Amino acid sequence: MSAPVVADTKQDMELNCRFDMESEELYAVKWYKDDQEFFRYMPHQQPHIMTFPVSGVHLAPQNTDCDRIHCKVQLTKLTRHHSDGAYRCEVSSEAPTFRLAAETHNITVATLPKEKPRILGLEETYNEGDILSANCTSSPSDPAAIVTWFIHNQPAPQKFIEEMRTSDNDGLLFRS
């Protein structure tokens, strides 16, 4: 199974499941989120595909592709607190063996920053003892990006750092 570790709310998320049935016949491929089935592919039944409502899961049916060696589903309209979870692909074979194989991936959904952080207020050079006053601002995200300052490749002492948090109209967070 292939799936992202972190999925961005601004993009669709693709889940892929590949399998080798060897000499056995495929019975079903099922997709679950947090142990709730949301998709089923059964090549020998009509309809081949069935979907089930699960909170935070919105399928893009035109981007679903399943056959006897793989099954790809695409999810859209991801939300941070509802689409997070454990996604599992479960593959089973026909009678008489009814073998079952499954793989699970935990996926975190977040709104990732669109841009690199912006640093303002830096001079070209400093002399020892000079006071440096600069601002590093992340672009909007949820959760807020973590901003870390370094001095000579070492994290700057916390006593030299002032953190400010704000949010935009969409509720996305900034950190400076």
Can you give a write-up of this model?
The protein is mainly β and 176 residues long. The chain folds into 2 domains: 6-110, Immunoglobulins (Immunoglobulin-like, Sandwich); 112-176, no CATH class. 2% of the residues lie in helices and 40% in strands. The strands form 5 sheets. A 6-stranded mixed sheet has the order 1-9-8-3-4-5. A 3-stranded antiparallel sheet has the order 2-7-6, with no helix packed on it. Residues 1-108, 117-176 form the Ig-like domain.
CATH class of the largest domain: Mainly Beta
Strand content: 35-45%
Radius of gyration: 23 Å
Distance N terminus to C terminus?
Answer: 38 Å
Write down the secondary-structure element order: EEEEEEEHEEEEEEEE
The largest sheet has its strands arranged as 1-9-8-3-4-5
The CATH superfamily name of the largest domain is Immunoglobulins
Mean pLDDT: 92
Q: Got a strand count?
A: 15
- Multimeric status of the protein: single chain
- Helicity, in percent? under 10%
Number of domains: 2
**Separate helix tally:** 1
Structural class: mainly beta
Q: Summarize the biggest pleated sheet.
A: 6 strands, mixed
CATH architecture of the largest domain: Sandwich
| Overall morphology | elongated
Q: Pick out the low-confidence regions.
A: none
Domain Ig-like: 1-108, 117-176
InterPro entries: Ig-like_dom (IPR007110), Ig-like_dom_sf (IPR036179), Ig-like_fold (IPR013783)
Protein name: Ig-like domain-containing protein
Organism: Photinus pyralis (Common eastern firefly)
